[in-house]
Here is the input.
Amino acid sequence: MGLFDALTGGAAKVFVEVGEMERGKAGQVVVRCQSTGGEVKYDRIYLQIQGVERVEVLDSDLVQDYDGDVRRREELVHASRTTYNDEINVAPAGVLGANESAEWTVEITIPETANGEYSGQLASHHYQLFAGMDCFGNDPDSGWVRFIVW
Here is the structure.
């Protein structure tokens, strides 16, 4: 592993697997980390969970030109809000050997009172996971992975 790999998060790959879940019931998430060559020392493995609501509405304005002509200008306006946020420590500090991989299974529960999945014409709500590895430089991560919560 070179210095550039450590600084860009290329020292390891992080994967997350999750199935459908039901609010108020425990579900399992699998986090897997794999060295891409050299030994990787990490401070912790963690999992972020978010519920996100997105809204899209049509905004319409009347605009007057310099010569007095009036026209309508329309644009889609987007907004989003995090409705649920949680972070779980999956594993404490450790070392992933050269070309090694490790796997952890974590149980999570989305509260019964949290919003469920929906997708309407103007609004939607979904859940997403993000697994990461705290280590020197840019932390390797899974990116946001969507999953369904009923």
Observations:
- The first strand starts at residue 12 and ends at 18.
- The chain is about 5% helix and 65% strand.
